[in-house]
């Protein structure tokens, strides 16, 4: 049994869900997985034991759906993927189906339509690139990466919801770059009862990427 | 959309509080079932975050009758709960805000909870 489990894990280590069904038409409208996506997959793989104990798993901004699909395969559970972009919702559904993963898709704005204490694991790879604020949240492909001032415009809209939607044993994973000032994300959420740390970092071209993980602080 | 997802959703219509906007009423015009593996422990654990009354109401819309009171020691009930939560997919239908009546369509299995700009 243990040998079987580790053989399964070996397959998931470094695996990326197939995107053979996607075409250039999709990549004109949806973010194509890149180094940041792969870093997040690696961080989730490393935390597979805790994630497998999570029941309600939500990804915000799935884009192509690779992370949501990976999470569903990794945890053998269903995952809810929430995206504001209609093309991303449709592609996420196709990616899940092509890879035989159980993913529910909802069109919505961040966590606004999720009830309190409902999420065991929340995952977000936000548009983190520092840009002019005008580029944030547009209808074009730039909305998938344009993060506005300090690359924080979209993340800062989500952060107030994180402590609200996480279940008591909930956890939150977020991708960021150095320009996002990860220390200030940690201190913002610490003030709301969540303890954060960097679980993985990697330099990719001009980006100093990291994945932060937050859990509720034990009551003192 | 699975009913597990429905259980997590709340109306975000303007001026509607979470207590007023939960649960969303579920109207189903098309759904399908896809059997998944049932495990008593997993289902019991899942129920720790699920609101049973909301699940019971939603299950009624897909002709699954759940008893008024949840009993985590009842294996037959847990099997039914698992079917309702995981095996039912709503393909076409609507979610309705219990306070404002705002209707959120479900098309091709994807509920759309986005508000229009003039509703924000």
From TrEMBL, chain A:
Q: What is this protein called?
A: Methyltransferase small domain-containing protein
Q: Which GO terms describe its biological process?
A: methylation
InterPro entries per the record?
A: DNA_methylase_N6_adenine_CS, Euk-Arch_PrmC-MTase, PrmC-related, SAM-dependent_MTases_sf, Small_mtfrase_dom
Supply the Gene3D superfamilies for this chain: Vaccinia Virus protein VP39
List the molecular function annotations (GO) for this entry: nucleic acid binding; protein methyltransferase activity; S-adenosylmethionine-dependent methyltransferase activity
GO terms under cellular component: eRF1 methyltransferase complex; nucleus
Protein's organism: Pelagomonas calceolata
Q: Name its cellular compartments.
A: Nucleus
Q: Give the family, as the similarity comment puts it.
A: Belongs to the eukaryotic/archaeal PrmC-related family.
UniProt keywords (A-Z) are:
Methyltransferase, Nucleus, S-adenosyl-L-methionine, Transferase
Asked whether the UniProt record includes Lipoprotein among its keywords, one would answer no
Primary location class? nucleus
Chain ranges of the Methyltransferase small domain: 39-130
Spell out the Pfam families in the cross-references.
Answer: MTS (PF05175)
TrEMBL record, chain B:
Which lineage? Eukaryota, Sar, Stramenopiles, Ochrophyta, Pelagophyceae
Give the UniProt family note: Belongs to the TRM112 family.
**InterPro entries in UniProt:** Trm112 (IPR039127), Trm112-like (IPR005651)
Q: Which GO terms describe its biological process?
A: rRNA (guanine-N7)-methylation; tRNA methylation
Annotated Gene Ontology MF terms? protein heterodimerization activity
* Residue ranges crossing the lipid bilayer per the database entry: none
> What's this protein's name?
Multifunctional methyltransferase subunit TRM112-like protein
| Coiled-coil spans in chain | none
